[in-house]
Amino acid sequence: MTAAAGHAHGPYTAYDLEELPEEGRRHELADGWLHELPGDLWHDNAAEQLRTILKEAARQATADVHVAGAPQEVATSAGIRRPDAFVVDRDVARLALERRARTYYGPDLLLVAEIVTPRTASERTDRVRKVAEYAATGIPHYWIVDLEPRPSVTVLELDGRPDGAAYRARRRARAGEDVRLELPYPIAFDPARLSEME
């Protein structure tokens, strides 16, 4: 937890999150508490590579989408999340740009991806908390990306159950295998690309 200006003990609001100085740190807001996101060169490089892969695939498919990531935000029932990568329809992105908003709403997302930072508090958040949260928000696809011991991508797909939305694992692709999906547009790549440095 991090103290926000004017509120030493919380609970915090989206306004407190907005007022935090960046200073090389990133935060999310969940259930009224600010959580610092871990970040290192390895994680940030993988996030950039993933966004590039998603953009290249969108161009090849002539998909009318926009690929984004932090510092752009996603509003969920718990608060404000800053995914490493996400995809929205281009019209949704245009509207956000016109409104000068950097926050998207969960139901607008086609795909969200989080890169796990092992042995941190955010690892459990990415693997457990966000699985339930993103499903409840209605995001159809959630990718959990692991970089250790070798890059892999776990592809989760929304499964609308009568008792509520939940994800089901569609597949897991490891370095040396191709992730091949048709949704939200055709995407094919080897997870090993996520560890390449440019």
Automatic annotation (TrEMBL):
GO MF assignments: endonuclease activity
Nuclease listed as a keyword: yes
Keywords, in A-Z order: Endonuclease, Hydrolase, Nuclease
Domain of life: Bacteria
Residues covered by the Putative restriction endonuclease domain: 16-186
UniProt-listed InterPro entries: Nuclease_put_TT1808 (IPR012296), Restrct_endonuc-II-like (IPR011335), Uma2 (IPR008538)
Pfam assignment, any one: Uma2
Protein name: Uma2 family endonuclease
